[in-house]
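Dear colleagues,

As part of the handover before I leave the project, I'm documenting each prediction I ran so the next person doesn't have to rerun anything. This entry is a single chain, and its sequence is reproduced below.
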Amino acid sequence: MDTVSKKELKLRRIIRDAANDRGVLVAFSGGVDSSLLLWEAVQSVGPEMVTAVTASAPTSPAGEVESARSFAERLGVDHLVVESDECADERFLENTPDRCYVCKLLRFRGLKRLAETRGKPVVLDGTQADDHPADRPGMRALDEEEIISPLAEAGLNKGEVRLLLERAGFADHAKRVAQPCLATRIPHGTRITLEALERVRNSESFLRGLGIETVRVRDHQPIARIVTDSKGLSMLLDDRALRDKVRSRLCELGYEYVTIDLQEYR
């Protein structure tokens, strides 16, 4: 048995121990990590013992909720979409370096309340071993709210998560590009507004529609700074007509200037 398979067995033991005959609620964004966690929860305790919950908010990237719903349906689990209210909290809108912590705290408290009403008091989160508190301030909320992160406990890193998803038959999901919340496109210290979030969402959706799959539109209103990978850079830099189309559309969406960051997205 290879190392990854041993970690998978450990992961399933962790989930079964957490469920303790009452089941689990999985914080399910629809991304790579939470998708594997949901799959492994179903394999560990059965679909009837699992509830997947996806947060919907103005900060959600386009298509995220629909993608999560589709995956949960494939697994046959109970799936709830709940409105998240961080955009009604002044601490979040102020956009300090603690923004992610505030968001996670609000969301996990809401998930714990929901879990209790459904008889599944244990909330599982898709944090994995490559996630570090210094890079992800929201992880502090995990400790405070006693949320269990089985992937991290089992020692599974991002590459191993993708490998297990592929082995499970979800190669499409295994290759997905991360889609963090849209608030990450707005620099700390700049107040978050619904208008800015919508501007970013529509801009990124437009760019992906052109085939630029890995992309972030950093909102420095009135400037849009497009960050993409080598493929996206080549597309934009080699095609003046494409650049003109991008500039025209993003200006329609509310920007005055459209720039391309020459450093590739990582």
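The chain has two domains: 3-174, 193-260. The mean pLDDT is 93.

All the best with the project,
I.
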